[in-house]
Design goal:
Structural class: alpha/beta
Shape: elongated
Distance between the termini: 40 Å
Strand content: 25-35%
CATH architecture of the largest domain: 3-Layer(aba) Sandwich
CATH topology of the largest domain: Rossmann fold
Radius of gyration: 39 Å
CATH class of the largest domain: Alpha Beta
Helix content: 10-25%
Largest sheet: 7 strands, mixed
Strand order of the largest sheet: 17-16-18-19-24-23-22
Length: 688
């Protein structure tokens, strides 16, 4: 037998108390007078012997009670043959994988429920003198204070699923931080997980050497292959989403099972209404892309999701998305010396969903750019340095600018502006003796969706005739795309990214002395869809993936707190946020976000809508069993990590208390109770 906490034996000195009580009788004797003391003397001898026996028995019972209690707290065990035992109280850290892959089931039930029961089992079988820290993969607490057994058990009850995956490498690399507040000399670590191949084991340690003095235990949960059908990706064919125009959605469906799935039902929901229904059949272990089309009927911000019917793994049965259709947004047209009647026709009569305001270039310095989603600079002659900086900052924050050059513009001033934006420069004007046509434009660009038939042969493309054009040269290194060129390879329309915003640059002015472009049927759709593109209709982030968050910049002049509200009204979150002039930058890394649709609010004002989805790899439920996990750890140089079968019986025999033996503290507690009973019996049965 070995005591794991031998220092507790110092409390055995408490036996001095009953010994002192035994040696010094503090009761004052009573004097009784007798005429004849001979008989009393004989009686006194008998009573004295009985009293002494009683006192010695009481002393023995009290000493044994104290020693039994001290022994129990000293954590006695019977050591298994061939095993070493680390004596002393232990600091125990238990990490439970609470990612959604733990919603799998086997013959023993739900994985997360199994993990919680096993965590409870191993904590209850540790010594009373041990201290505990219970954590989850969704909330790894560094440098935290250890708790008592009862507090640890309470924490286990509170564990629930969380949308966060983490690899074994990150878990092990923080071992020192887990035990930074430990008060005991021996440290034991347990990790209970399904050890999912795509998430937990899809990691690597830069340094496989574990801290000395920490015993590491991996406990795999689950013993059967999980089957799952899930949506792994979602995208739109059209980058620009328009009201009352068909929108086609691409869905990537996966059948992670050995059985064929027939007529899997797919539903598309927008603002809690079913807008499309489809079905698809999947072969065993097949991954397939399918299309579903619906027609948005409302403008503004929209939340939606795609749902499938799949059990029992249902955490990934929905895929969420958000999109924006411009509505009641403000558009600013800034003219130089020569207004364009053709642009006026488009902006005033055809672009009805915008509030269009027209000003001269001299008024540009007076307007608040944050009030507008798009600015069109049409024939401005120059841009001051102050206006250049304001426009650059506004575009960086997500604004959209469309630029038409004028033959009267000061090229040096405009080039300073464009170089400030970091996108290009203008040369001289080329005047063609005859006319020059467009080359076939890049019809795959979002501007040309629904404008031209992509199958039309090049010879049938009705190109405008150009008489003059600027020689515009993009700067190297920028994120730019030439959309239209003329036959002499000069830029007609260029797209450039500046921060979060977009700039569309034309090489010509919309006037007949430049070209007959304003008279062509393509003119209005190109200008119109260009404005849609600039108005953030082209959203690359229809959703964000949990764990791969990107900062979100929101246009707002208010400094009030920004909150995320669940679309179903259940829950409100406050993300990390930084106020900047005219905008608020949101970061979600430290926010406990679950998959779903959210509204971004300031007070009661809706700013935008946003969606979050599980990472695809969380739905791939292939996991390592005990043998596979041991082989994997050995290959990673982690053979010292002990892998224990995830059953209560194995934990009691192999893991309990990290003692490598049979715990005896319960028996010593029982012995202490028996000695107390004996003391009571002695007091009752032996009369003084």
């Amino acid at each position: 037998m070995v005591f794991l906490s031998p220092l507790v034996w110092w409390f055995a000195l408490a036996v001095i108390v009953p010994i002192l009580v035994h040696l010094f009788n503090f009761r004052r004797p009573k004097r009784i007078l007798f005429s004849n003391v001979t008989f009393v003397k004989e009686v006194n001898k008998t009573v004295l012997r009985r009293v002494k026996l009683k006192q010695w028995l009481l002393l023995l019972a009290r000493i044994l009670t104290i020693l039994a209690l001290v022994a129990a707290f000293a954590n006695p065990i019977i050591k298994h043959a061939g095993n070493n035992v680390n004596a002393g109280a232990k600091s125990v850290v238990v990490v439970v994988d609470n990612s959604y892959s733990m919603s799998g089931t086997d013959g023993r039930g739900n994985y997360l429920s199994q993990a919680k029961l096993l965590a409870k089992e191993l904590i209850e079988n540790h010594s009373l003198s041990d201290e505990f820290q219970v954590m989850t993969t969704g909330n790894l607490r560094m440098n935290s204070v250890f708790t008592s057994r009862s507090q640890a058990l309470d924490r286990i009850k509170e564990i629930d699923y969380r949308d966060k995956t983490i690899g074994y490498g990150k878990i092990l690399s923080n071992l020192n931080d887990y035990f930074s507040e430990a008060r005991n000399g021996n440290s034991t670590f347990y990790f209970l997980s399904d050890f999912q191949t795509a998430t937990v084991l899809n990691d690597s340690l830069k340094n496989a050497e574990l801290p000395k003095g920490v015993e590491v235990n991996f406990i795999p949960i689950g013993n059967q292959k999980q089957v799952n059908v899930y949506v792994s990706d979602l995208s739109f064919n059209q980058v620009i989403v328009e009201k009352n125009k068909p929108l086609t959605m691409n869905l990537r469906l996966n059948n992670d099972s050995d059985k064929e799935i027939e007529n899997l039902s797919i539903k598309v929901h927008v603002e809690n209404k079913v807008v499309a229904i489809a079905s698809v059949s999947l072969q065993a272990n097949e991954s397939k892309t399918t299309e579903v089309t619906f027609t948005p009927t409302q403008g503004g911000w929209q939340n939606g999701y795609v749902s499938i019917d799949d059990t029992p793994i249902d955490f990934d049965n929905s895929r969420y998305f958000s999109y924006y259709i411009p509505e009641n947004t403000r558009l600013l047209v800034v003219y130089g010396n020569t207004p364009s009647q053709y642009l006026d026709l488009v902006f005033r009569n055809l672009v009805t969903q915008y509030k269009v305001e027209t000003i001269s270039q001299t008024e540009l310095s007076k307007v608040s750019l944050s009030d507008y989603s798009t600015v069109i600079l049409a024939g401005v002659t120059d841009v001051s340095s102050g206006a250049s900086d304001r426009l650059k900052s506004w575009i960086n924050d997500g604004g959209g600018m469309m630029f038409f050059p004028s033959d009267k513009m000061e090229v040096g001033s405009i080039n300073n502006f464009y170089q400030n934006l970091g996108i290009g420069r203008f040369g001289g004007i080329t005047n063609y003796a005859g006319t020059v046509s467009f080359t076939t434009p890049d019809l795959s660009h979002p501007i040309f969706e629904t404008v031209f038939q992509k199958s039309k042969p090049n010879a049938e493309f009705d190109s405008p005739a150009l008489s003059r054009i600027y020689d515009y040269q993009p700067l190297a290194g920028g994120i730019q795309n030439t959309i239209i060129k003329d036959q002499n390879n000069k830029t007609v329309l260029q797209e450039a990214k500046v921060g979060s915003g977009t700039v569309l640059t034309f090489g010509l002015y919309p006037a007949l002395e430049w070209s007959d472009f304003p008279l062509k049927s393509s003119f209005v759709p190109i200008i119109y869809r260009g404005i849609l593109l600039l108005n953030n209709a082209a959203r690359s982030d229809f959703f964000q993936t949990i764990g791969q968050f990107l900062p979100k910049k929101i246009k707002t002049s208010s400094k009030d707190l920004v909150k995320l509200r669940k679309a179903n009204g259940k829950g409100e979150l406050i993300p990390e946020q930084f106020n900047q002039s005219g905008s608020m930058t949101l970061k979600f890394d430290r926010t406990d976000i679950t998959a779903g649709n959210y509204g971004i609010y300031q007070g009661d004002s809706l700013l935008e809508k946003i969606s979050f989805n599980f990472p695809d790899k969380e739905s791939k439920l292939t996991a390592a069993n005990k043998d596979q996990l041991e082989e994997f750890l050995e290959q990673k140089g982690l053979a010292t990590v002990k892998v224990t079968e995830g059953t209560a019986e194995k934990l009691r025999s192999d893991v309990t208390g990290n003692v490598s033996g049979i715990p005896l503290w319960k028996y010593f507690i029982l012995a202490a109770v028996l000695f107390i009973v004996c003391e009571v019996a002695i007091l009752k049965l032996i009369k003084s």
